[in-house]
Amino acid sequence: MSIYKQYLNVSKITEHYNYTKGNKENSSTSRTIISSIFIIICCVIILENILVLISVWRNKKFHSAMFFFIGNLAFSDLLTGCAYIANILLSGDTTHKLTPVAWFIREGTAFTTLAASVFSLLAIAIERHVAIVKVKVYSSDKNCRMIILIGACWVISMVIGGLPIIGWNCIGNLDECSTVFPLYAKNQKDNKIL
Fold first, then answer.
1. pLDDT tens digits for 27-51?
2. Residue 65 neighbours by CB under 8 Å, 6+ apart
3. Where are the transmembrane segments (predicted)?
4. DSSP 14
5. Count of Cβ atoms closer than 10 Å to residue 7 Cβ
6. Any idea what DSSP says for residue 185?
């Protein structure tokens, strides 16, 4: 039986959580307080990054490659804040109402945006290294390097975030499930992607 047939089965989430984590009861009051604090922190992160993006967009002095990298970092951090708010709101009791597809999208967006943030930092480091060591600065015809680095950040991040939904998961094999992320496979040796 194909694992993809189980992607819309709502009971799969509860089955996997009960198998990997047991049926644990958490205090809903403390969870609500902690969730509220994290949502407030995420809102601050979103607002800070909106200010950075507005500064880069409105100020002509910031229309250079380095500031586009910083803008990309701010954009990925802004999306990370949004993804975590969605993740928090879809956690707890709501988790058991999700289909595996919705669960993969919830977790995948968080992983994608976090990976994009980390890869944006890597792209900034690569660009600084090339600019300092090779003394290659940007001109209008050299923006290709910037576009390739920023594009690579997002493509690699989307691949990482999308692996579980395209098959790197344990829907068909409970013994291979991760304890932290119950639908994610611990390794890929027995799972078939596509």
1. 677 888 999 999 999 999 999 999 9
2. 127, 138, 143, 145, 146
3. 33-54, 66-89, 109-126, 147-168
4. H
5. 17
6. B
Place of tokens 């600084």: 128
Work out the pLDDT band at 96, boundaries 50, 70, 90: confident
Q: Has residue 160 got a pLDDT over 80?
A: yes
| 146-173 burial code (b ≥16 CB/10 A, e <16) | beebbeebbebbbebbbbbbebebbbbe
How is 115-184 classified by DSSP, letter by letter? HHHHHHHHHHHHHHHHHHHS-----GGGHHHHHHHHHHHHHHHHHHHHTTTTT-B-TT-GGGB-SSSTTB
pLDDT at 31: 83
pLDDT of residue 109: 95
Task: Residue 47: count other Cβ atoms within 10 Å of its Cβ.
Answer: 11
Q: Which of 110, 126, 35 is nearest to 77 (CA)?
A: 110
Question: Token pair of 194, please?
Answer: 């596509």
The confidence score (pLDDT) of residue 155 equals: 96
Q: What is the pTM of this model?
A: 0.82
Q: 121: which 2 tokens?
A: 């930092």
